[in-house]
Amino acid sequence: MTSRREVPRSRAVMWWLAGTSVLRHLERLGWNPVRHPDRASGRMGEMSEIDGMGTERATCVLARNPSAMTLQGTNTWIIGEPGAEEVVVVDPGPKDGKHLHRVVDTVASQGRRVGLVLLTHGHPDHSAGATKFAGLAGERVKVRAFDPEGKLSDYMGSLDRLRAFSAKVGAATILPGHGPKLDDPLAALDYYIDHRRERLAQVEAAVAAGARTAREVVERVYIDVDKSLWPAAEWSVQSQLDYLRSRA
Ligand SMILES: [Zn+2]
Questions:
Q1: Alpha-carbon gap, residue 223 to 159, rounded angstroms
Q2: Closest CA to 17 of 187, 139, 171, 128
């Protein structure tokens, strides 16, 4: 397939994006609430600076679906080698005709065409528009999907793989599924990894102190998190309890 030749290392890019996009979601679900190296300044990024951001090989088209879970909206990524005729579109986004047309128009304005559509995971804000998008982009366009399970061990495995990959290739940027790009990948990943270890230690301590249910753990550990996120945090804690028990 031509896109394979024109977009080298696409497999690595796919893993990369699968990991980072899921990572952002899990973060919103309470894996890594509140604190973030990019947010030390309190800046979360404006929609206007996310839409159109990118690198030599990547352009972001921001879907207009902002929410507590999607931050400023879902990032649709157009990825291609400089000079290549074909691009890969990662996560076409929600089923929003205006957004999907904007992605098609952006690719066309670059004088290129879509060779492949990749879905990092099945959440509708990333994937619901995929079939419609493929139809708009050309009848030969294929869609391929990943389906990470969302278990904590998978998440931690993704972080470790991303960390190793970033170090190996000297990665300059993480292109996330939500929010601004991260220009210090190792620092960001170390932060997530350390934070995960901290949270696990806190959950272990809460259990040792007598917390018996996920809810009881949340009440002790997630005091610093807005209560509207507690149901999600409870789900997160349940995964952590499962993970800890599986290792006991
Ligand atoms: Zn999302």
A1: 25
A2: 171
Q: Judging by beta carbons within 10 Å of its beta carbon (0-12, 13-18, 19+), is residue 24 exposed, middle or buried?
A: buried
Classify 2-184 by CATH class: alpha beta
**Distance from the alpha carbon of residue 129 to the mean position of ligand 1, in angstroms:** 13
List residues bridging with 59 in a β-sheet: 54, 78
Pair of tokens at residue 141: 């366009």
Q: Give distance in angstroms: CA of 210 to centre of ligand 1.
A: 35
**Dist CA 12 CA 216 (whole Å):** 40
pLDDT tens track for 43-63: 467 788 899 999 999 999 999
Cα-flanking dihedrals φ and ψ of residue 89, to 5°? Answer: -105, 120
The Å distance, Cα 120 to ligand 1 centre, comes to 10
Could you read off the pLDDT of 119-141 as tens digits, one per residue?
988 889 999 999 999 999 987 88
User: pLDDT tier at 22 (50, 70, 90 boundaries)?
Assistant: low
Domain layout of the chain by residue ranges: 2-184, 191-247
Q: Which helix (H) or strand (E) holds 89?
A: strand 86-90
